[in-house]
Design brief:
Layout (H helix, E strand, L loop, with lengths): L2 H27 L2 H13 L13 H24 L4 H7 L3 H12 L6 H22 L8 H26 L8 H8 L1 H15 L1 H9 L3 H28 L2 H4 L6 H13 L5 H29 L1
Helix pairs in contact: 1-3, 1-4, 1-11, 1-13, 2-3, 2-9, 2-11, 3-7, 3-8, 3-9, 4-13, 5-7, 6-14, 8-11, 9-10
Length: about 300
């Protein structure tokens, strides 16, 4: 990757790391599914009047919007609302790197190495530590439902990554900008978010949330809509269009660094020894999956 693109990737992970603190503030003030609807309404309008509709099949636009936008954030917002710590969530969500590799192998026929499977095994061990602690009551601040929601959010993100890759690879001469794709795909999740909010959160919660709307909530939505979505996913989409998924995915390892540090700084979150063990295993698994082959090669050369 070029130095410029490395800097772009770093900007994205900083924005996304702090994003978990912003989400925590948002779902504390508003029902999570309603927050999702407002986020993507702000993303779509007025952007669709600025950027031309991408010349891609509607089914791909629909799939992208339902996976990386609706699926990911419906479960992510709900996970944090039911009690998932923002910092720990930032780590577990990086399961998207594993899911992206697996889906890339199954759908795009990208090759997998032995180090990929070793890394996934190590990360699964880490998730097992967290899951066992949550179900046994040993980790009072990690609800099992929230853990499952976060994993589903990671899978949805990975599905969106693969869809993005397919879109960028099959555009031919009709290449669309990443911002065009982000803007028009934001129309897709608005109605599902509103319907799910009405069904699962209820009319009273929606009315109460909207009646309490203030400048703080407005600031949260602006961050989620413009910094996290436009700048974050816009740049991420550009990078995925330029490089293979395995070149871009490693930068997601830095998101938990900023997620954990910003959550500790702004939310006062702390993690215990069992949680630290599980998180270390997950991060080691990610490192082995994404860098294992290069590490082994360098060790052999040394």
């Amino acid at each position: 990757m070029s130095f410029k693109d490395i800097l772009l990737a770093l900007c994205v992970v900083i924005i996304w790391g702090v994003n978990f603190v912003i989400i925590k503030l948002g779902v504390t003030a508003l029902p999570p599914l309603l927050l999702g609807a407002l986020r993507f309404a702000f993303v779509a309008f007025p952007a669709i009047f600025i950027f031309k509709r991408p010349k891609i099949p509607f089914k791909l636009l629909l799939l992208y919007g339902l996976t990386i936008s609706f699926g990911q954030f419906a479960f992510l917002f709900s996970a944090i609302r039911v009690g998932m710590p923002a910092g720990i969530t930032s780590v577990i969500l990086q399961s998207q790197a594993f899911f992206t590799l697996l889906l890339g192998a199954m759908i795009l026929k990208e090759s997998l190495q032995a180090t990929h499977f070793i890394g996934m095994f190590i990360a699964i061990a880490g998730l097992t530590v967290l899951a066992n602690g949550a179900t046994s009551g040993g980790l009072d601040d990690i609800p099992f439902l929230g853990l499952m929601f976060t994993l589903i959010a990671g899978l949805s993100w990975a599905c969106g990554n693969i869809t993005n890759r397919i879109i960028m690879q099959n555009q031919g001469e009709n290449k669309c900008s990443a911002l065009s794709l982000v803007s028009w795909s934001a129309l897709i999740p608005i109605i599902p978010f509103l319907l799910c909010s009405w069904i699962f959160e209820g009319e009273d919660a929606i009315v109460e949330g909207l009646s309490s709307f203030n400048w703080s909530i407005f600031g949260v939505i602006l961050y989620l809509a413009y910094l996290s979505t436009f700048i974050g996913y816009g740049l991420w989409g550009v990078l995925l269009g330029r490089y293979e998924a395995w070149r871009v995915a490693p930068f997601s390892l830095l998101v938990p660094v900023f997620g954990l540090s910003s959550s500790a700084l702004f939310l006062g979150e702390h993690i215990n020894s069992i949680q630290i063990a599980g998180l270390i295993l997950i991060m080691l698994g990610l490192i082995m999956t994404l860098f294992g082959k290069k590490i082994i090669q360098r060790l052999r050369q040394a």
